[in-house]
Amino acid sequence: MPAVDDELQQAREELDKEFRQLRENLEKIHEAVAKVDKAGPLDDVAQILEDLEDTVKKVRTGGLIGGGAKGHKKARERYLELQGKPT
């Protein structure tokens, strides 16, 4: 059953790739949170929080071109499915 092993290996590689991309994009969330932390009484806190929400959404959904956390979720489900484990 080498084909199953190859498919499982490919699924694992895709899972690892999606996770790396997710981890890289988390930095954008940290930067947006830092702006909230640094905000003062004269800053437009509502806009800063809206920017944070937008950033989190893009990391979660992947925006227009990426998979984001959604891509990781699909890759994880595929890998677990190939292992016969519940998602």
Task: Write up what this structure looks like.
Helices cover 80% and strands 0% of the residues. The chain is rod-shaped. The protein has three helices and no strands. The mean pLDDT is 91. The two termini are 23 Å apart. It has helices at 2-38, 45-61, 68-83. With 87 residues, the chain is mostly helical. Helix 2 runs parallel beside helix 3 (68-83). It has one domain.
Number of strand segments: 0
Q: Give the tally of structural domains.
A: 1
Rg (C-alpha, Å): 18 Å
Shape type: rod-shaped
Residue fraction in strands: under 5%
Structural class: mainly alpha
Query: Separation of termini?
Result: 23 Å
Largest sheet: none
Total number of helices: 3
Let me know the average pLDDT.
91
Q: How do the SSEs run, as a string of H and E?
A: HHH
| Relative helix content | over 70%
Poorly predicted spans: none
